[in-house]
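Journal club side-thread
Mid-discussion, someone asked how the predicted structure for our own chain would compare to the paper's figures. Pasting it here so we can look after the session.
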Amino acid sequence: MNKNIQEINDMIKYESTFVEDILSEMEKVIVGQRTMVERLLIGLFANGHVLIEGVPGLAKTLAVKTLAAAIRTTFRRIQFTPDLLPADILGTLIFDQKKQEVIPKRGPIFANLILADEINRAPAKVQSALLEAMQERQVTIGDTTYPLEEPFLVMATQNPIEQEGTYPLPEAQIDRFMLKIKVDYPSLPEETEIVRRHSRGKPIKTTPQAGPETILKARQLLGKIYMDEKIEHYIVSLVMATRNPQDFGLADMRPHIQYGASPRASLFLSQAARGHAFLRRRGYVAPEDVQAIALDVLRHRLILTYEAEAVEITQEEIVGKILEKVEIP
């Protein structure tokens, strides 16, 4: 290994020790769901918002609340409902009678970690209210723009099976989520352990293991993780294959893809791969980091044709075939 890369690797191994502390603390509360927990941490370290999809009862909300408790940051939960207004999230201007002036009243968006619970239950104008905050890390109330305190992260949940009273997320908003995680049911041993823990009747306390300064430092460290040119080319090739699959020996996929992933996907895949390497306490990105995180970065960026829906081709299947076909460096 190159001497400089070895130095980076040693530094990351030393500086990332707190990650295991956070994981251990979360595992006191969350049984199983290791992939979901790791993806939440990748989003946190790589500065990317996370969308979590799964049926009710899979600890989606609990996982985000536990993460917030484990890192000593300000946390707000916003329950999205059909009657929610943009001002309920961002804040509004109110008239102070004593001072005889208009003053801003800040909404719950002004926190480090935001849990947008059941985000697809609010209409498009409310969902769109998050766009500026998610992209520019700022909020405009009246004529004034207010920066959001870092670290800032939106972690949203949605239910995939109950469609009555829900509103599809605008494509522009979906694209701002770095990762889309699909949560599955726990295994038999895991569910048995869940029942056992909850039968004790004692709440499990979560002790903070890191603060905002630790998270911000981790984000800086991610930028130092080495990524070879071959890995960069591999990432771009995966994204390009979603737009022009015929160029990568996947001509049969062309009729199923209406729109492929944008350049933002390449950026997010690069950041997320570094985040995955950081969790593995490595100072360099390996092909397996890209492969491990590619599905979560790409699945929500592919817009399929009616033909794909007719033959029940899913985004997951297409990304899987792309990963099989694109040459690994």
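Post-session note: The chain is about 45% helix and 15% strand.
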